[in-house]
Design goal:
single chain; about 120 residues; alpha+beta; 4 helices; about 60% helix; about 15% strand; elongated
Amino acid sequence: MAETQKSNKSIVSIIGAVAGFSIMFFAVKYFMQPDLEKQLAQGVKEINEKALMLVDDFTRLDSAGSRGKSEFIYYYTFVGVEKEEVNVDTVTKYIRPNIINNAKSSSDMEFFRKK
């Protein structure tokens, strides 16, 4: 009988420890998550401090912004190109897929992809 009581106490202790660990794990994970909106705002601030940066011979990064909790917006200018010379369909067809692919594969964007 003493062994049964000891065995029951051990089982209860193990179950209590597992339950306590599980509760703490999920509480920390839930309450200690970095705020995505704050991180977006920090990223916007960092980029805007460096703004008016030439990306390549034809592109200048003017500024960045965010919208809501999940959109990060870059504002670029084509340098040395008149507005009439730019075909929006061509930009959409050739440049946009590269930008999306970069966002999907860049290690710098990994945090945002997880959200």
